[in-house]
Amino acid sequence: MQEKGSISIHTENIFPIIKKFLYSDHEIFLRELVSNAVDATQKLKSLAQLGEFKGELGELKVRVTVDKEARKITISDRGIGMTAEEIKKYINQIAFSGATEFVEQYKEKDAATKDQIIGQFGLGFYSAFMVAKEVEIWSKSYKDDTLTAHWTCDGSTEFTLDEPTGEHEKAERGTDVVLHVAEDSDEFLEEARLKAILNKYCKFLPIPIEFEGEVINQTAPIWTKQPSELTDEDYTKFYQELYPFSEPPLFWIHLNVDYPFNLTGILYFPKIKDELQLQRNKIQLYSRQVFITDEVKDVVPEFLMLLHGVIDSPDIPLNVSRSFLQADAAVKKINTYITKKVADKLAELFRKDRAGYEQKWSDIGLFVKYGMLSDEKFYDRAKDIVLVQDTTDKYYTLNEYQEHIQANQKDKNDQTVILYTTDPEAQHGYVQAALDRGYSVLKLNAVLDPHFIGQLEQKLEKVTFKRVDADTVGKLIEKDETTESVLSDDDKTKLTEVYKAAINNEHMQVQVEALSPQDAPVIVTVPEFMRRMKDMQRVGGGGGMQMFGSLPDSYTVSVNANHPVAQRVLAQEGEAGQKLAKQAFDLALLSQGMLKGEALTAFVKRSAELLTAE
To answer: Which domains does the chain have, with CATH numbers?
Structure first.
C-alpha cells in the first residue's frame, strides 16, 4: 500500500530554510549523501562485529552514478538499509538524527562505534534539494523479512511512501538515493564536476567510493596509522599528493591524541622563506575522514596557519551544514594542544640536531618569530630555541648571544646594546666601523624583524637594539670615555654653517662631533626610534604607526671635527668651502645608497673637477 503524508518539521517553516539558505555551497549535497551512505555501511560493519548481523557482508562500497539523459544522480550503498518505519522516523522527522540514536543504542557495546559514524547531523540528507526537484529513496533493511521501502518527495513538505513488490522490489540490502536534477543545476550532471566534488570531500573516506567504475578514494590515509608504521617516504609522498606543485616539506608532526579530545593529523613545515604574502588555508580539516573546510583559523592558532597538512577530529563542533566551526572549550583545548606539539617538535629538533636546525633556520625563522609575536605561550616555549645570526653567519640563541657580547657592548648605563644591520651590503661601512671597535653585529633583515626587535626589548632585561647606521659608532654604545675635538667652538659653529649652506635641506640636521680621525668625514644617520617606527609601519604596525609612515625622513648629519677634511673645509673661502662640504656630504649619502639621479650625476662631475684641480 502507498502512504502519503507531511514531513514532521520541529521548527515552523524550517524546510525552505534548509532547502535554500542552510547550505551556502550547493556542491556539498554530494558530501552529505555520500557521508550518509558511508555511515550506513559503517553501521552494518559494527553490527557484524557485535554479532548482531550474521549475514554475508560482501563487497562494501558506495557507488555514485550519473545519467545525464535522464537527469539523475544516484548514490547507492550496501549498508544497513531502512524499513518504511525507519524512513518515516529518520527522514520525515527533520532534526532527529538516526546516527545519533544508533550511537546511543550501541555505545555501551562498542566504544569505537561513535568514531565510525560520520552523520550526526539530522539535516544532511535535505541538502539534496538544493540541486534536485525530486528525490527518491529505495531502501531495503539488513533485517530479515523486511520489504523494500520507496520514499518520494518533490521538495515540498509532502511525501509518498510505499513498499513495492515484484520487479520494483530492491534485490539486496542497502539504500539508493536518486536525485532528479533541477533545471538550474545542470552543472551537477557533468561527470567532471561530480568527480571534482568527490575528490575534494570524499578522497579519504573509510569506505571505497566508486564513481563511473573507478574507486576515487584512499580508505586508510596515513594520518589514521601509527607513526611506527610509516616511513619518511610515506610522509613526503602524502605531502606531494596534497600539494602536487610544492617543494618537499622541511619536517612534519604526526598528531595522535585520544584524551581529553580525539585528534589525529599531520602538520608539515613548508619552505616559506622570508615573505609576508604567506600561503594560508593550506591545512585541511576533516571529521572522521570527511573533508570539512580549509578555513581552520578557530582550530589552529593564527601563526600556525603557515603550516600545511591535515587535522581530523570528531570533537570539533560544527554547525548543521558542517561548513563553519563553532568556537567553544573543545576548540580552545585543541588549539592549545597543537601549539604545544609544534613547540615541542621544534625543541626536539634543536636538541637532537643543532646543525640541522641551523640549516633549516632560513626557512623556519619567520614562522617561529611570527609565533612568538602572536602567541604569548609560544613565546615562552620558543624563546630558548629562536636563533639570531651575526654578520659572520654564526648562529646564537638569545642567551648565547647576550653572553657573547655582554663584556664589550654594555653602555655607561649598564644596558646591553645589540647592534644590527638590515642590509649588510648597503650598510657595510657602518658595519665595518662597529666591527673595528670589536663589536658584534646581527643580521636582522627579515620582514618581521622590526616587530621582533620591539618584542625582545620588552622581554629581555636591560637590553636595547640599535641599527648600525642609527648614529655614529661612538654614540651607538656610549661609554664614559670622551674624544676631544681639535676644533674651537668658533670653528665648530663656522663648520656647521658651511655644511648647512652646502646641504640646504631642512630635513638634514647638521651637528659637528668629535669622532675618531679614522671615522668618515661625514656620517648620515636616521634616529633609531624614527627608523624603527617607519620599518614597523611598512610591515603592518597598526593604526598608531601610520603617522610615522607619512612623516618625511629626518636625518642627522654628523660632521667629524677631527677628520682632516674638516680643516680643509674651514681653510676654503665661500663657494669653494661649500663645494668641498657638499662633496663630503654626498660621499656619506653614497655610502647609504641614498645618492641617486641628478644628485649622483652632479657628484660624479664634481669629483672629476676636484681630482683635476691644482
So the answer is: 2-215 (3.30.565.10), 222-352 (3.30.230.80), 387-476 (3.40.50.11260), 489-539+553-612 (1.20.120.790)
